[in-house]
Amino acid sequence: MKKLIGPSAIRGKWRFGLPTVIIELLEGRTEAQKAELAKAITDAMVRILGVPPNAVTIIYHDLPRQNIASAGTLFSQR
Length: 78
Description:
The chain is an alpha+beta fold. The chain has a single domain (19-77), classed as Macrophage Migration Inhibitory Factor, CATH 3.30.429.10. 29% of the residues lie in helices and 23% in strands. The protein has two helices and four strands, in the order αβαβββ. The strands form two sheets. Strands 1-2 form a two-stranded parallel ribbon. It has a two-stranded antiparallel sheet with strand order 3-4. The chain is elongated and about 45 Å long. The model is unreliable at 1-12 (pLDDT under 50).
């Protein structure tokens, strides 16, 4: 049985936490790739955490290659 959490628990209503996943990627992924990943992550959250699909939020941050460096070199210069 799921535990009641949050303010609604006091009133005896079910309330789920809101899992939010933030994904930082180098720009260039297609909308189809992001959609497939969002579906896979949502399915995993539903299966593992027991939350409804509409509770899962996924935020993509597309990062320009000139805004990320590793070992002192910008990704745009590789």
